[in-house]
Write a structure and sequence with these properties.
Helix content: 25-40%
Distance between the termini: 59 Å
Number of domains: 2
Strand order of the largest sheet: 2-1-7-6
CATH superfamily of the largest domain: N-utilization substance G protein NusG, insert domain
Bound molecules: zinc ion
Number of strands: 7
Order of helices and strands: HEEEEEHEEH
CATH class of the largest domain: Mainly Beta
Shape: rod-shaped
C-alpha cells in the first residue's frame, strides 16, 4: 500500500515535469510574437496566436487574426501601412513612416523551415 503511494507520487511528479518542459519548449520555440515600436520605443508585444485588435495611440490600429497581423486603420496620409499585406513570418514588418510606427514579427514559426530550405 505504501509503496504504491510512492509510485503514484513519483508518477505525478514525472508527469508534471514533462508537462512543464513541454510548455517551456513551446514558449521559447515556435511562438510568434508581434512587436510594436512607436518612434523607436517599444509600445508592446502581442501573441500572434491570439486574435485581437491593438490600438496604437490614436494613429494606428493593428488587427491580429488567424496568425496574421495587418494594419487595419491608420490616419497617415500615404496609407502604405494599411495597404501592406498581412505579416506572419519572422523578420517581416509593417512600417508606418509618417507615424513612426513599426510592427514586426519575432520568432515566426516558419523562419526555421525557410532557413533550411534556402
Ligand atoms: Zn501609415
Amino acid at each position: 500500500m505504501k509503496r504504491n503511494d510512492w509510485f503514484l507520487a513519483a508518477g505525478i511528479l514525472a508527469a508534471a515535469a514533462i508537462l512543464l518542459c513541454f510548455q517551456m519548449f513551446r514558449k521559447t520555440g515556435d511562438q510568434a510574437v508581434v512587436s510594436i515600436t512607436v518612434d523607436g520605443d517599444l509600445y508592446g508585444t502581442y501573441s500572434l496566436d491570439e486574435d485581437r485588435i491593438v490600438e496604437i495611440n490614436d494613429t494606428n490600429r493593428l488587427e491580429i487574426r488567424g496568425g496574421y497581423a495587418r494594419m487595419e486603420w491608420a490616419d497617415c496620409p500615404d496609407q502604405v501601412c494599411v495597404n501592406h499585406q498581412g505579416i506572419s513570418r519572422d523578420g517581416e514588418s509593417i512600417i508606418c513612416l509618417p507615424n513612426q510606427v513599426v510592427v514586426s514579427i519575432e520568432n515566426g514559426e516558419s523562419s526555421g523551415v525557410d532557413g533550411i530550405a534556402r
